[in-house]
Amino acid sequence: MIEDTIYRTSSQYRVWSYTEESLQSLRASTNTIASDRVRVTLRRTRDAPQSATGTPQPGSDVDSKEEKPIDCLTPEEELVFVRYYCESLLELGDEYKPPLPTTLRATAIQYLRRFYLTNSPMTYHPKKIMACALFLATKTDNYYMSLQKFSEAIPGSPSAEEVIAPEFLLMQGLRFTFDIRHPFRGLEGGIMELSAIAEGQGQPTPILPHQTAQSLKQALLSIAPPPTPSSSITDRIGRAHNGTRELLKTAAQMTDAYFLYTPSQIWLSAFLLSDRPLCEFYLETKLGGPIIPSTNSDSDPSTPLDPLVELRTKLSKVLSDCSALLQGYTPLSSDPAQIKNLKRIAKKHYKCQNPEGLNMAQKRDSAQPPTSASATDSGPATSESETERLAKKRKLEEQKRGAQDLFGGELVPDRTKGQ
Amino acid sequence: MAASPFASRSPSITVASPNTAIRLKAAAAQSGSESTDVKTSSQSHGELTEQLNDSVAQNYERGKKLGEGTYAVVYQGHRRDTATTVAIKKIKVNADYKDGLAMDAIREVKYLQELSHPNVIALHDVFSKNENLHLVLEFLPGGDLEMLIRDQNVQYGAADIKAWMGMLARGVWFCHENFVLHRDIKPNNLLIAADGEVKLADFGLARSFADPYLNMTHQVITRWYRPPELLYGARQYSGAVDIWSMGMVFAELLLRVPFVAGNSDLDQIAKISEAFGTPNKDNWPGVEALPLYIETDKNSIIPTSGRDFFLRQFPTAGPVGADLLMSMCTLDPRKRITAVQTLRHDWWTIDPQPTKNADLPRKRKSAEKKMGEDLSRRGGEIGISDGPFKNAARQLDFGGK
């Protein structure tokens, strides 16, 4: 049983791995479904006051031409919007004493990203989901604290009920898979191996029998210089370690890396960006190499390619793709153009939120707790008028709370909203 | 499976899972066509995520109730398309726990989603219905090992024990290979399939191995199966805790009564000392540093039990079997045999050969109800309101800092 076989049984591979095309089409479907629902719900809510009974005719309002079309977010806009909350989530972890562990924050960010693959931020505001994602991560990553204590640390002090309300919805969006395979552990292992080699304690790889601890150390000391000068090999490994870790904490979390690549591919790609010669050396200790375009195999196609060379070539392509993805990331907050774009999206989002979605997340508050497990399974359907009433109530509450909301209020000041 | 237990450390070069994508895509396409329908969009269950959930839920039909506990209700059910029988475990949400879904359920779902092995109960699907969590589990109508141990009408011998222990050892090995500690191995968590296969169940106390230096709770594993390091309050431990429990199950299979059955944690340590010798810094360097360790007076130290003791106490196992049991019951967890080493022990290959599943002793009457009881129970609980188990485990102490 090799590591790949184990990885293929993981939920991260089975449920949460995609090609770029499938990822894009999934997001497009989610967006289409949510947009249609938003349009219908918003029209109904808008028309509701005219209907005394509160039961508008379904379908009759769809064609009303006098209405301005409702401008929904595009899948790309949704992605930027969610990314802003993923970045906030990273900062939210600092509010705790001691600060929450990096892997726990990373788990919460991935929960949020997975959730929004099949849910739209127009239906469920990320602001309402993110705290719950972080709390769920404390539970699944064995870093337990009480909900009360957890909620108190959040700016704006939301109530415990507010934080936990969308938990079930979130778990459903996660398709009840909680295990996230992070690249951090692989990085630690690789750094330990390199440090051992630097100390002359390297373990030769079984498939490359010519290696010895001494030859490994010699090879390590003779690699090309690092991108920034370092005083010693230990110093160099340390810098590469930090640089890689930083990329894994940020770029790897905020891009689609987890959906497209395996944890080992991700950390090796980040490592490649931090110190290319060192990463190449590490790969050579495992797979031999470097890859030299062979002229012999061109002339004789019947010669089977060395499987290690083949593997290395394949890997090299994957790593360079993943590196490019990671390198393309800049934090929203550090880029004025992105901030401007984000503000535009936030403004647009305000006008195309689905009021029903947020009720759904709050259903737990108002719903009767199941009295006995044998209770009937036919849940009470919320009537449309009830939905509208809740939507209005929510809107009122939201206005009341204004800037005191979770995480320092809206991106767009209240005055400019809703016009 | 056990033939090549070592994972190679080469980087994976798998790219993505087209199958999943296609499945999700199909679901998306299906729902997309309906989404323009006003009726669909006015329902609160229209989001793609809910449609995916509903399509899973629709695959199963729920049948009669098999059991009910404080934590869950278990039903028999079947898949609509294949008519495969399954067990559906409906978790009671928020029974007495205010912080959302209880940790038992979180852990069980988290780990069973990742573990797929013939000797670990299979989790086929998870879905929600009216804000209730439903786990679709493998249907295991053969009862559990505890039932067979206790039933005086059931006769079994060394070959049967070898078969059962072999299946347990493979299940435990697989968990450890995937960096998961079970932390509640005991006879009534070892369920039996219709074909006689033993399956490790109840992952409500499971967790993944902690990173080095991070603490874990010592309040796990039902007392009679709890290793000395946990009784002494160790906060950093390994798969060795499960191996001890396995040893206790082995001994119980041989004796047909629990081997060291203390009526308090202190009494448990006393009984372990009586049986295997008093833990001290000679047979277990470092034990004196454990938080709850109490030094025994020099005159009352019981010497460590040797091979003779195990041979005398467990004649059924034979000398090689007794040797395996002794390695599982080593006081010092660092010297205790590991799961991989267990699988490589000579006992499996010498005579008698393990009984084939079809010939294993079993209850004549169907034991579906037993499955219902086992699955609806919280870990660390026992069916009868037995004193010794009351405070075991499940006390939420998560060993933060």
TrEMBL record, chain A:
Pfam families: Cyclin_C_2, Cyclin_N. Residues 40-68, 353-419 are annotated as: Disordered. It comes from the Eukaryota. The keyword tRNA-binding does not apply. InterPro entries: Cyclin-like_dom (IPR013763), Cyclin-like_sf (IPR036915), Cyclin/Ssn8 (IPR043198), Cyclin_C_2 (IPR031658), Cyclin_N (IPR006671). Residues 386-403 have a biased composition (Basic and acidic residues). Keywords: Cyclin, Repressor. The keyword Repressor applies. SUPFAM superfamilies: Cyclin-like (SSF47954). Residues 87-172 form the Cyclin-like domain. GO terms for biological process: regulation of transcription by RNA polymerase II. Residues 48-58, 368-384 have a biased composition (Polar residues). GO terms for molecular function: cyclin-dependent protein serine/threonine kinase regulator activity. Component of the SRB8-11 complex, a regulatory module of the Mediator complex. Belongs to the cyclin family. Cyclin C subfamily. Component of the SRB8-11 complex. The SRB8-11 complex is a regulatory module of the Mediator complex which is itself involved in regulation of basal and activated RNA polymerase II-dependent transcription. The SRB8-11 complex may be involved in the transcriptional repression of a subset of genes regulated by Mediator. It may inhibit the association of the Mediator complex with RNA polymerase II to form the holoenzyme complex. The SRB8-11 complex phosphorylates the C-terminal domain (CTD) of the largest subunit of RNA polymerase II. This is RNA polymerase II holoenzyme cyclin-like subunit. It comes from Penicillium steckii.
From TrEMBL, chain B:
Residues 368-380 have a biased composition (Basic and acidic residues). It comes from Penicillium steckii. This is Protein kinase domain-containing protein. SMART domains: S_TKc. PANTHER family: CELL DIVISION PROTEIN KINASE, CYCLIN-DEPENDENT KINASE 7. Keywords: ATP-binding, Kinase, Nucleotide-binding, Phosphoprotein, Serine/threonine-protein kinase, Transferase. The keyword Ligase does not apply. CDD domains: STKc_CDK7. GO terms for biological process: positive regulation of transcription elongation by RNA polymerase II. PROSITE patterns: PROTEIN_KINASE_ATP (PS00107), PROTEIN_KINASE_DOM (PS50011), PROTEIN_KINASE_ST (PS00108). GO terms for molecular function: ATP binding; cyclin-dependent protein serine/threonine kinase activity; RNA polymerase II CTD heptapeptide repeat kinase activity. Belongs to the protein kinase superfamily. CMGC Ser/Thr protein kinase family. CDC2/CDKX subfamily. The keyword Protein biosynthesis does not apply. Residues 26-52, 351-389 are annotated as: Disordered. SUPFAM superfamilies: Protein kinase-like (PK-like) (SSF56112). Residues 30-52 have a biased composition (Polar residues). The active site is at D184. One of its GO terms (cellular component) is cytoplasm. Residues 60-348 form the Protein kinase domain.
